[in-house]
Design a protein that fits this description.
There is one protein chain. With 474 residues, the protein is an alpha/beta fold. The chain has 21 helices and 16 strands. The strands form 5 sheets. It has a 5-stranded parallel sheet. Strands 14-13-12-15-16 form a 5-stranded parallel sheet, with helices on both faces. Helix 6 crosses helix 8 and helix 12 crosses helix 20. The protein is globular.
Amino acid sequence: MDLCRGIARRLTDSPDIRSPDEEYQLLDADSPSLRATHIQRRRRSRFQRCLRHLTFRRILVFLALIPFLLLLGVLWSGIPPSFEDIRQYERSLPQHYVTQALEEGRQYIRFPEHIWGHGFNNVLQEALLMNYIAEKSGRSFVFEDYVWSHLPFKYTLYDFALRPVRLPLNAFISGPTAGGSVSHRASVNAEFWDTLCPPSMRRVITSKDSPSNEDGKAIVDWWVERLKTVQDDCVEIDSSEKIIFDRAFFDSNRVVSLWPELSQSPIVTKYMWSPLVYSAILRNFPLLQPKSIEALYDFTANTTLDGLLALHLRRGDYRRHCPRLAGWKAQYNGLNQYSDLVDRFDSSPYTYQSEEYNNYYMEHCLPTVEQLVSRLAIIRKANPELRRVYVLTNAWGFWLNSLKTALLKDGWQDLKSTLDLSLDSKQNQVAAAVDMAIAERAQVFLGNGLNLKYHHAENGKRTSGVFKQVLVTV
């Protein structure tokens, strides 16, 4: 019967063929039930339309396109530069002339099990101490590439972008560790080592008998004594069984004993950032606002960016890492425990894993905006000439905007960060070193004592001879 009435409606002109009980009931336009019904119908119809379009074939096509879309996103970030020009520079260093090296009878030492796959700060601190052992033992240090991955390709993936698996050390630093000019025993790169010291000529010495829990000076002295008895020109240290300077060493205060002598070594006194890093600083002179452009051309770090406070804020992975540091009872990292530094880290008054204990760690490792504003206000009170803040960070832009708003409200003139740097494709690959070089020149550096980046930027300040700069930690 219902079917017949439906056909009749379509065949006749009259729209009123219906039973009396089918009369429409007019509803108030503002009726909640009417609005709810309309919303439900719209949602149902949208969902039904989506289902009609979502066919099995289209699902397969979409899944097949996912790798292509990911590849397109990766390539959109660009192909990283090759750094072949810097490699050619390293090859042309005068100490890499084989004939001259053989005539002079130089002796070399290489540490092939160097750290890799970590941040540049971890690599740098190890390289400096390995070079120190070489210098103390009267041998030329063999420096290595900065290695992110041992994949047999030029690039790897990191944060959905291509990243070189290795970079020449001279992309980051200059000076003795990277083959810079010294009066004797200039460092050489691993490529030259392979040419001059084939496997048949290498004397391999294991590190398994070296001291493990001694302070830094004792470890270096042990190696100096051990190498005195070795006459071979090509010495290779096998540290596969025992790392000479492991993470526990750098996390402790055992490295502090090395500083008095190391700070007077050419390794430190002649340490410089690479021309690539300095070019990034010059390129960003409007952001840094030096009192004179000439000051930026003094690459010895003996100049100060007056009025600038550099602030190191590690975010991202530190939301997970900082609670781990509290669980490990970690202290300030390595040389950040040096006695001349202003701040100290002492969690002893708090019960382990109590709320106060964890809050103490988080305040030093992952401070909030409010805590930072308060801390910077104290520093500015002691240094009233401070006006601007530069933040070394991996934080998101929206969080930095909230920090900037709070600091401007508290009287600071401006805040710039790593995100504001204008860098080309090469400079972008060494952005961590650019950040450190800026922090080194800042009038005041407020760092994270639980992190290595503070450790190295602070070293740069101490070795530059500019002791008027204030050294503090979060």
